């Protein structure tokens, strides 16, 4: 399973990248706004900076909701860097746009996936990635992991090439469950990635080793 970081915060991207385990980055308009990035030029410059920092796919989301607008935006985003993946919402014109991007060799990430039916449609249109929003499903008292498992089974049975990019991750256990469920990629906040490091027995064990090592000198 690949690890993407789900943020537009450059310090957090650097910290995750420095671990040596980062395969890419996802952003969305809310994450960009959170960093105070305003205006198309600033947003595009921010994508360029992220692409220079991380050697992997960087999802950049269109904000148009009509076919022509998405195509124009997607072409412009693509021109920023070869690693840009155009992120398109799961709506009718979004599916048409994904098909157009696929036919023109442009990679896509179909976002805001909440059902297996949506994941099938995105795969039929040739999306490179689908992004099921695990945490937001859990927030409605349904089990987001079950959707990941269902999509993984369908894609395997139908031999779809679209990769499952589990999104809206809320904690480290989500990452482990996504790996079990067959997600190809997990895009995570930095805290959830760092949470994978932690175990009290590791801390206790290391403290004892270091204490005992004092007798060596
Ligand atoms: C990433 O592609 C998604 O936009 C993101 O994971 C959504 O996360 P949220 O539900 O925490 O906003």
Secondary-structure blueprint:
Elements: E1 2-6, H1 10-18, E2 24-26, H2 29-34, H3 40-53, E3 57-61, H4 67-78, E4 84-89, H5 92-103, E5 108-113, H6 116-124, E6 129-132, H7 134-138, H8 144-158, E7 163-166, H9 172-181, E8 185-188, H10 190-195, H11 200-213
Parallel strand pairs: 1-2, 1-8, 2-3, 3-4, 4-5, 5-6, 6-7, 7-8
Helix pairs in contact: 4-5, 6-8, 8-9
The structure holds erythose-4-phosphate.
Give a structural overview:
The chain is an alpha/beta fold. It has 11 helices and 8 strands. The chain is globular, with a radius of gyration of 19 Å. The N and C termini lie far apart (43 Å). The protein has an 8-stranded parallel β-barrel with strand order 1-2-3-4-5-6-7-8, surrounded by 7 helices. It has helices spanning 10-18, 29-34, 40-53, 67-78, 92-103, 116-124, 134-138, 144-158, 172-181, 190-195, 200-213; strands at residues 2-6, 24-26, 57-61, 84-89, 108-113, 129-132, 163-166, 185-188. β5, α6 and β6 form a beta-alpha-beta unit. α4 crosses α5 (92-103) and α8 (144-158) runs parallel beside α9. The mean pLDDT is 97. The structure holds erythose-4-phosphate. Erythose-4-phosphate (E4P) binds at residues 6, 26, 28, 111, 131, 133, 135-136, 167-168, 187.
